[in-house]
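FORM 12-B: Structure-to-Sequence Request
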């Protein structure tokens, strides 16, 4: 572990509890992940997606960005447009079908994707595990 990584870990340990952070740091990392950059994140906070990629690369994790991704479907779902939301979810499911791990740097979009993609056993969602 580099000195910079060790310093970052010590800072996180102070904020979040040493035992928990040490357990997280010792977990195996995937070699490759797929990044789902949400539509609103891309429009309003593109630096979040960029920072996510930088962080993953710094951790030695390759990042795939499936072309054609647009939205998780949550705005349509929340507005009562269930079928269009389901259509968007199916499109994303197809785009991310080969991904073992999907990183979603938005809590609400991650939850919506797990809910929508998880229905009918489409995708197994294990947030926080």
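FORM 12-B RESPONSE
SEQUENCE OUT:
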């Amino acid at each position: 572990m580099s000195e910079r990584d060790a310093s970052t870990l010590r800072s996180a340990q102070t904020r979040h509890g040493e035992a928990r952070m040490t357990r997280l740091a010792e977990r195996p990392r995937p070699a490759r992940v797929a990044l789902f950059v949400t539509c609103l994140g891309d429009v309003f906070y593109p630096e979040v997606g960029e920072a996510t990629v930088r962080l993953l690369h710094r951790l030695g994790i390759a990042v795939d960005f499936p072309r054609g991704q647009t939205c998780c479907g949550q705005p349509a779902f929340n507005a009562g447009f269930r079928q269009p939301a389901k259509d968007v979810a199916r499109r994303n499911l197809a785009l991310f079908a080969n991904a073992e791990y999907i990183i979603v740097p938005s809590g609400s979009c991650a939850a919506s994707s797990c809910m929508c993609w998880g229905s009918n056993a489409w995708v197994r969602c294990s947030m926080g595990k």
